[in-house]
Amino acid sequence: xxxxxxxxxxxxxxxxxxxxxxxxxxxxxxxxxxxxxxxxxxxxxxxxxxxxxxxxxxxxxxxxxxxxxxxxxxxxxxxxxxxxxxxxxxxxxxxxxxxxxxxxxxxxxxxxxxxxxxxxxxxxxxxxxxxxxxxxxxxxxxxxxxxxxxxxxxxxxxxxxxxxxxxxxxxxxxxxxxxxxxxxxxxxxxxxxxxxxxxxxxxxxxxxxxxxxxxxxxxxxxxxxxxxxxxxxxxxxxxxxxxxxxxxxxxxxxxxxxxxxxxxxxxxxxxxxxxxxxxxxxxxxxxxxxxxxxxxxxxxxxxxxxxx
Amino acid sequence: xxxxxxxxxxxxxxxxxxxxxxxxxxxxxxxxxxxxxxxxxxxxxxxxxxxxxxxxxxxxxxxxxxxxxxxxxxxxxxxxxxxxxxxxxxxxxxxxxxxxxxxxxxxxxxxxxxxxxxxxxxxxxxxxxxxxxxxxxxxxxxxxxxxxxxxxxxxxxxxxxxxxxxxxxxxxxxxxxxxxxxxxxxxxxxxxxxxxxxxxxxxxxxxxxxxxxxxxxxxxxxxxxxxxxxxxxxxxxxxxxxxxxxxxxxxxxxxxxxxxxxxxxxxxxxxxxxxxxxxxxxxxxxxxxxxxxxxxxxxxxxxxxxxxxxxxxxxxxxxxxxxxxxxxxxxxxxxxxxxxxxxxxxxxxxxxxxxxxxxxxxxxxxxxxxxxxxxxxxxxxxxxxxxxxxxxxxxxxxxxxxxxxxxxxxxxxxxx
Lengths: 308, 416
Ligand SMILES: Nc1nc2c(ncn2[C@@H]2O[C@H](COP(=O)(O)OP(=O)(O)OP(=O)(O)O)[C@@H](O)[C@H]2O)c(=O)[nH]1
Ligand SMILES: [Mg+2]
Fold this sequence. Notes:
- By secondary structure, chain A is of the alpha/beta class.
- Chain A is built from nine helices and ten strands.
- Chain A has two domains: 2-197 and 297-304, Rossmann fold; 212-293, no CATH class.
- In chain B, the strands form four sheets. In chain B, strands 7, 8, 10, 11, 12, 14 and 15 form a seven-stranded antiparallel sheet that branches. A six-stranded mixed sheet of chain B has the order 2-3-1-4-5-6, with helices on both faces. Chain B has a six-stranded antiparallel barrel with strand order 16-20-18-17-21-22.
- The site of guanosine-5'-triphosphate has 21 residues of chain B, from helix 1.
């Protein structure tokens, strides 16, 4: 075979990752009738929006931003979301888990740190049905978790949103087969191949604004038995035996307030964050998520159930 | 920093997942919480690591239960020199399409061989697939050296067997490393058990191997992915063709041909990231504006008039059949090449590749899961293409079953 070393230019890895993501976003635009971008207000979906700007401006996005609001979000993330949609003049659709709970008479999250993480799936499937979305773009990355590491960039889901890891289509070269049968939809992950550090390096390079909770600030937290710092808020039941501390913390991921832990940090700037991450001994999800600790296949099971 | 994409291949249990686990473990790329979890899960435990290293990539429940890899896992790590994307692919023949998936984008193949067993059918199959995919480098890692007393003789024997087998494959570059993934010999740390081996460790090899990079010198190739038409008052007449430069370069004023409609026009403007640019290089995501209003849509190609590709309603190709259901003669298929799609049928199965000898055998007229065949395909619309060995982007395609929508084959185009 003959891939000769002609006069070849070398691309930086961030350019390669960016090019790949833009290519994928444009494939979604070209292949689907009713795509959506699932926007959470976290850094990964903020990067997706930034990539969409590069992929489609001066045109409008060929998809709305869709947020499944658990009601347990950080207020900073919600403000950021609303400002961004306004500033970009793009359509934002918000659906509330609380409404699903009421309508479907579901059991709300219980316990000390009541999580609506599992309940999100119901609302997500409802909004997909309501708007007949055929493709949902998400910011999941393969380095996050071992089941995610196995998922295709175009991941076909059945009518119930279920992922069948044993039946994944082959995905060859940069050719994406988004053809689906009625009722099915596709989850698309343009930044599959990015690591947490890549995301931060990209945010720095592109000078992307973030919600303030990604940077260090003082916060009142409960120190859990696993050594995690959970911020105190109206949803968390504080007991007399709880160790409540005030710490300088930041968030590595922005999920629900009830199940995302803060990490102690002195990082005031993007450079500080990058330095901190290079030295971090604990993985992103390990440091911040309570929901994956339940079982060794927690993520795989949630995906099979229709989760992102 | 440079990026190297590689995959591991080889027979079931030759140690692919363990090798990747070892690479990540010894290069300190695994977080402490992950090590903790793996320690709890490990039934068997490594000699010095206390964990079953394969569990790092075997992320599905079924994989952990059966102790085999079913689908590709992607892992990422960085050293001071490079950034790596690894695809750990399954060795079991049943999951060859997943191996193909992990291999198709790679710069380098690591093919593992169990030193006790030597070359197996799967070693051959994966080497042939690497050859068909034009993987620039193949590294044969002779693993489990601990189980053959770290024997130099055994190593040399396998190296010779492999060279003899691989002769007709035209692999661009092959290298050999003796290792033990389980014990860590020659992965990141140099082995003290094999002083006879003077070459690089796996990690040194990965950090130093030359990466073939983007081809800006090739013929100009671009396919439209999506047409951007804001249709606002302000941008009423804006009409831009969004896509990726597949190879070559483009600049404002270039005389171009739109295919398959075969209309000549001129590049009026090039945009990238919301700014006008003078020159667009390979892999740049751009928006192209043309002087004239022409018939052009998703899947159309824009090429310089002096560098036109072949455009035909038929192609010769090597394909790997990937569907559980065997090929049905006359079956209606969709051929997808990048963003271009057309109806297609396989008119003739010219021959079948024998995975033992790489020889082309006479076809029995059928294609079953994992068969590699030379075929002749007719398409409904004319397709613009280059030979795969000239251009990976315009010489590759997939076939989709019109009924099930599944991807049923992967193909590489040859010119004759
Ligand atoms: N003694 C010895 N055992 C090894 C070595 N490498 C791997 N093994 C063992 O071989 C078995 C299979 O290893 P895996 O890494 O799961 O093999 P694989 O190639 O990934 O298998 P599939 O992905 O299912 O094709 C495990 O029990 C490993 O511990 C080695 O260098 N020496
Ligand atoms: Mg394996």
